[in-house]
Amino acid sequence: YKTFPGNPRWRNKYLTYRIDNYTPDLPQAKVDEAISKAFMVWSDVTPLQFKRVFRGDADIVVAFARREHRDGYPFDGRGNTLAHAFAPGKGLGGDAHFDEDETWSEYNHGVNLFLVAAHEFGHSLGLAHSNVPGALMYPTYSYVNPKTFRLSEDDKRGIQKLYGRKSA
Amino acid sequence: FPAQLKPHSWNSIDLESVKTYLDKFFPLLRKTDSQSLEERIKKMQRFFHLTVTGTLNAETKEIMNQPRCGVPDIAD
Prior knowledge:
A: about 170 residues; alpha/beta; two-stranded parallel ribbon; about 25% helix; B: about 80 residues; mainly alpha; 3 helices
């Protein structure tokens, strides 16, 4: 696992997130569920807790966008880059953006939103890319069944290095 | 010796795409950094546990074509 230079992380264990907009590819309830489950991947193994807010400031803002979307890192149409996120910090820090030119899906046809969101939230919490194949923080996308998804030990060590273990 | 690999022996599209990929995901951290394209490809091949050749071979192209996250692989 790797963290970002300077090990940026959130000082507060209670983090807020806001879903800024939705993809037409999925029912809104399915997007809400995928995002909530993606956060649970990390809250299940650390003291972190995530609360959704519907307006105002949020530590992590989730948004769907295409091409240039005012953060200086334009998306590139269908395929290639699927999403990106920013390391913990103010403003854009922690925010996760998903390329609306992909076809987002609940299963394996298209790009699985839960898997990509869980990866991007790893960045939102301070993890950089891992070069361990099979790790959630490995840079390239590969589908696994969300129902049988397990966080790798490499990812678990990384996030617990930043935030500690979940108390029993 | 060693003889420098002549990039022009790749077609220009390959060359352009590999430079774009390396600039995006394995950026030179300082403008003053100067690394040959071969060295930069080797760094990428090491990261992805590929055979380290410094050339744009099939398995390297395959990785470059996979859908992926937009955050660089070198955490800067």
